[in-house]
UniProtKB/TrEMBL annotation:
It is found in: Cytoplasm; Nucleus. Its main location: cytoplasm. GO terms for biological process: cell differentiation; male meiotic nuclear division; negative regulation of DNA-templated transcription; piRNA processing; regulation of miRNA-mediated gene silencing; spermatogenesis. The keyword Nucleotidyltransferase does not apply. Belongs to the maelstrom family. GO terms for cellular component: nucleus; P granule. Keywords: Cytoplasm, Developmental protein, Differentiation, DNA-binding, Meiosis, Nucleus, RNA-mediated gene silencing. Gene3D superfamilies: High mobility group box domain. This is Maelstrom domain-containing protein. It comes from Scylla olivacea (Orange mud crab). InterPro entries: HMG_box_dom_sf, Maelstrom, Protein_maelstrom. One of its GO terms (molecular function) is sequence-specific DNA binding.
Amino acid sequence: MSKYSPFNCFMMERKPEVERRLGRYLPMWELASEVSEEWQAMSNSEKMRYQRLCSQQGDKLDSYGVPLRLREEENQMKKQEARDMQHHIADIVNKYHSSGGLGLLPFYVISGSFYLRMDEGCYVPAEISLLKFSFKTGIIREFHAIVEPFLPVSYRWLAMKHSRATHNLLPKDGADGEKIKQVARSPTQVANRIKNFLSEDYDKCRPLYTLHSEVEQVQQMLHSMTGEDRLKVYSLDILFQHIHSVLIRKILLHESTDVITESLWEYHVGIACKWHIDNEQDSVRYCTMSCVKRWVFLMCRHIGMVPAFGVVPEEGKHYPVEEPVLSTVVNLPLLMQNLNMPDDISSGIISAIPTSSPAPQEATLGTCHHRR
């Protein structure tokens, strides 16, 4: 393993002061971006001091040039944050359940998709959706935003590959590009809109909840847009696990995850954002608005609103609005004629169709039903 590089030594020296100035902890990748200009402006004689200093260091580095000791410190900090999150969620659920106010407790559910995942866990945000929700009221308010794609040229192919496999937000041609430009906003604009949506809850640092497996991803995207660590992102799976435990019975975390991620409404078009409904209906399962609505609808469905809270579920608030069933009239004789089907086969098919109901004025012998 390599020793410290001079730049690593410089970062370690500057780390406490930069964190005090910004008022928050900085991961190594962000610290490097904060001090890189200062390092480049230093003279060779100034850098020599760090060259001598790094030769005295014994810490080993990982493949990114980050000391393993700092990696371990970050891991320990993440474990402590996970414990704090567990305690906070348990305290909130128990407090409101004991006072009879759990059904009225509002909480925020968030989902974020990305254009690209870069080295060191950096995500380029693509789409953000937020719901304010309570079990008694259902969905209270909605927020949705598509973020303008700011992609390094060298990562363009990877981003396009990811987009086509998931949300399809990256334009495939000029026409698609114009559609995205009409609705996409800069990261700063999206950050300001999120702050306005959260209103006073932003200042209160009320946590946002997302899938357990996506907590770090969403946290990083919010930080990259807001430039702050004020917004805390917690596990929706753990929240539902505690709610289920106080209302029905104790369940394991993976059972909670299975409920929230059930595929029941993955292709229910009506719960997606307007852009996906109008342009990419085949990708609605990856739409972040579809995700947050599915999660809260599935929680309501599994808990049982009447026995748990004495609330009759409301369409669009606790479960999706039913999509209309469209009927298509099919002229079977004409269809068979166009398919060059032999007369003996077509006659057998037609004679097998019940004729008890009155036939329409036109010569129609079959009706095919499908969902839009």
